[in-house]
Protein 1
Amino acid sequence: MAAQSVEEELQELAAIVREAEALGMDPWPPEKPDRPWARWALGSFMIVLMLSAVSKVLFRFVNI
C-alpha cells in the first residue's frame, strides 16, 4: 500500500523502525572506522594495471 502523503510515509517508516528495534535489530549501526589499507591496495593495483598497459604499448616499438 502506497502512502498518499508525507505524513503517512513517515508513520510507515516509524512503524518499521519500531518493529526492527523490537526484534533486536539496530536500524542505525555505528559507523565503521576508516580502513586506509583498502585505499592503498586499490591504488597499488591501479598502478600495476597502468604500468602493464603502458609496457605493452611501448613494447610494440622495441626491436629485439
Protein 2
Amino acid sequence: MSSEDQIEQAMIEMFARMHAHFGKAVKGYWFYESEACPGCGRRVNAMQHKGHAAISLNAYIYRKRGILIGYVLCNRCANEIHRAAEKRPGVQIARHDIIEKSLDAAYEAHMNRLDA
C-alpha cells in the first residue's frame, strides 16, 4: 500500500471516529497536501519514532466549516508538540494556534479555487 493510500485510509478512519463522536458537526474531511509544514513552513520530513522513520499524521476540526483537516508536520514541530504534551498533557501550545491558522487559510484558499 502506498503512503498516499495509507494516509487516505487513516483519514477515513479518523473521520469515522470524529463523526461518531461529534455527529453532524463534522461534515467531511480534507487533507492538507502541501510539502510545507503548517507549523513553521519548513519542508515536511520523516521523524524518528522508536527507532523507525515515521510521519506525524494529525487532524483537527475546522469548526467554521465542520471539516476534519488532516496534515503532517516537520520533525521539529512534531517533536516540539510531543515534548510539550509529555510535560502538560492535553494543553495546546502556541504552535497549535499557528498550525490551525495556517490550515484554516489553506482550506479557505482550496474552497475558493473550487468556487472559481
Protein 3
Amino acid sequence: MSDPTDDPQAPAAPEPASESPVQRALRLKQAAINAREKPPRGGRFQREQAARIATGKSKPWMSR
C-alpha cells in the first residue's frame, strides 16, 4: 500500500508557527526565485555570451 511518508501532496518544508508575515513573504519569494529556469552554464553558451560585447564597446564616448 502507500506509506504516509510517500505522499506527494505533502509540503516540502513545513511552515514554522512563529513565522512573521514578512518572513513568510521572503520565504515564498526565495522559493519562487529558486524555481525559475536557469540559463545553461559553461561550455559554448558561456563563451558566446562572454564574446558578445567587446571591452569598451559599451562606452562609445571613451573611443576617439
